Amino acid sequence: MGEFTADNRGMSTPKTLFGFHAVGVRLKTAPQSILEIFVDPSRRDARMRQFVERVQEAGVRMQEADGVRLARLCGSHGHQGVAARVQAIAQVHSLDELLENLEAANQDAPLGERTQPLILVLDGVTDPHNLGACLRVADGAGAHAVIAPKDHAAGINATVAKVASGAAETVPYFMVTNLARTLNELKERNIWVIGTSDQASQTLYQVDLKGPVALVLGAEGDGMRALTAKTCDQLVSIPMRGAVESLNVSVASGICLYEALRQRSAAQSA
């Protein structure tokens, strides 16, 4: 299953994180991986004061940097006066490893307590802001991974990390060479592959998402590629009642993932 050996970051972990959310999550979850934090001394508001206190409590090295230097470090003016130089943190290295870990954890668990895989697949999402938003939604809904094709997707960079507000650190992101083959390999593991299409006869709310599921979404406008759609076990639509014909991919991802979460939560509480 060689397709599953792709690195889960899309590229090496960013050397620079920026923005309060992205740096704050790293400070909370892996402070030992932070080499240095930079703050803009011209910001003296309550949010910055609280952030500086957290950095000092964590014992992380901190130095001042003006807005020009921060923009140069980040490659962006959206740094909010905060940036960090970081090292890579330990991650699951392959989708195979992640799924095998889930299977091993489920072996001895009672049927009602088993964790069913929930995977988000993005076909053709090349905008880093959209990818960051999708990762944030995936983290919130408890998705185990996000998958995308290597040659038809955005990779993880500092912009993605900022928009993801820390989720780029918590949700494994696998970029694969052949998406259709990877979907077939998921199916071999008994993961039901469900794609979204405005032409589908069934809606998202008519399908069972409580079992092992991979939800496949295409970019806004173009949608999924034909081969990707053909490889899915099933296609569903998201009901649209207004004048617009499609949703932003991160919004659609949120709708799909949270419907899966709703169904699973209802089943557990029944």
The gist of it:
By secondary structure, the protein is α/β, with parallel strands linked by helices. Helices cover 38% and strands 17% of the residues.
Fold and architecture overview:
With 270 residues, the chain is α/β, with parallel strands linked by helices. The protein contains nine helices and ten strands. It has a six-stranded parallel β-sheet, sandwiched between helices. It has a four-stranded mixed β-sheet with strand order 1-4-2-3, with helices on both faces. Helix 1 (20-29) crosses helix 6 (158-164), helix 5 (128-141) runs parallel beside helix 6 (158-164) and helix 5 (128-141) packs parallel to helix 9. It starts with 15 loop residues before the first strand and ends with a helix. The protein has two domains: 16-86, 2-Layer Sandwich (60s Ribosomal Protein L30, Chain: A), CATH 3.30.1330.30; 95-269, SPOUT methyltransferase, trefoil knot domain (Alpha/beta knot, 3-Layer(aba) Sandwich), CATH 3.40.1280. The longest helix is centred in the last third of the chain and has 21 residues, at 249-269. Mean pLDDT is 88; it is low at 1-7.
**Structural class of the helix and strand makeup?**
alpha/beta
- Mean pLDDT figure: 88
Rg (CA only) = 20 Å
Task: Determine the N-to-C terminus distance.
Answer: 37 Å
Q: How many domains, as an integer?
A: 2
Percent in helix: 25-40%
Order of helices and strands: EHEHEHEHEHEHEHEEHEH
**Largest beta sheet: strand ordering:** 7-6-5-9-8-10
